[in-house]
């Protein structure tokens, strides 16, 4: 009798333990999960990617300068080629033909496709890759319009200031330009290939910048 009662009690106790074990593991809230002592990162909402900006339109109909400050050919200026003029005006210490400037600047000066005041615009000759020209950016007017100072653009060794230069490239990347024809007061009909802009900052051995 005693043995049977004990068996029944033990059986009831075993059922109770089993019931407690089940209730202890069952929960409406999941246990926190940690990895190496840190909670997993909560996924962030995807950040929308901005659509690429459309190039600014090219305007060749309006006057590209203030009539009070027109582009001018300096009277009495000494005869000069474009290279010594650009070197003296910008401080970019490169010698040799203008067509070699872009390659010579590699690893020595900062080069980019973006104009800045004081930078040197390097262009190649129209239909003649063996010829080049360098001019110095004097002002940024808009995304597509700058003004430059340069020498010998008209072929007479003259110095011309405040000359508008227009970016006519399809991607607004300054790879193709047109230059204002000062004597005729209109845009030149030729499109020139531009290699880019050389900025007057030297690159040192640690890829740092040293101002001229």
Please outline what is shown here.
The chain has 212 residues and is α+β, with helices and mostly antiparallel strands. Helices cover 18% and strands 30% of the residues.
What's the layout of helices and strands?
Layout (H helix, E strand, L loop, with lengths): L1 H24 L46 E2 L8 H9 L10 H5 L3 E4 L7 E6 L2 E13 L4 E7 L7 E9 L8 E6 L4 E2 L4 E12 L5 E3 L1
Antiparallel strand pairs: 1-6, 2-9, 3-4, 3-9, 4-5, 5-6, 6-7, 7-8, 7-9, 9-10
Describe this structure in words.
Residues 1-37 and 205-212 have low confidence and may be disordered. This protein has a domain at 72-211: endopeptidase domain like (from Nostoc punctiforme) (endopeptidase fold (from Nostoc punctiforme)). With 212 residues, the protein is α+β, with helices and mostly antiparallel strands. Helices cover 18% and strands 30% of the residues. It has a six-stranded antiparallel barrel.
Looking at this protein, list some descriptive labels:
single chain; 212 residues; alpha+beta; endopeptidase fold (from Nostoc punctiforme); six-stranded antiparallel barrel; 10 strands; 18% helix; globular; disordered N terminus; disordered C terminus
**Outline:** globular
Q: Low-confidence parts, pLDDT < 50 over ≥5 residues?
A: 1-37, 205-212
Q: Biggest β-sheet, characterized?
A: 6 strands, antiparallel, barrel
Reported by name, the CATH topology of the domain at 72-211 is endopeptidase fold (from Nostoc punctiforme)
Per DSSP E runs of 2 or more residues, the count of β-strands stands at 10
What would you say the CATH architecture of the domain at 72-211 is?
Alpha-Beta Complex
Count of discrete alpha- or pi-helical segments spanning 4 or more residues: 3
Order of helices and strands: HEHHEEEEEEEEE
Overall residue-averaged pLDDT value: 81
Q: What's the CATH first level of the domain at 72-211?
A: Alpha Beta
Helix content: 10-25%
Strand order of the largest sheet: 3-4-5-6-7-9
Task: Report the portion of residues in β strands.
Answer: 25-35%
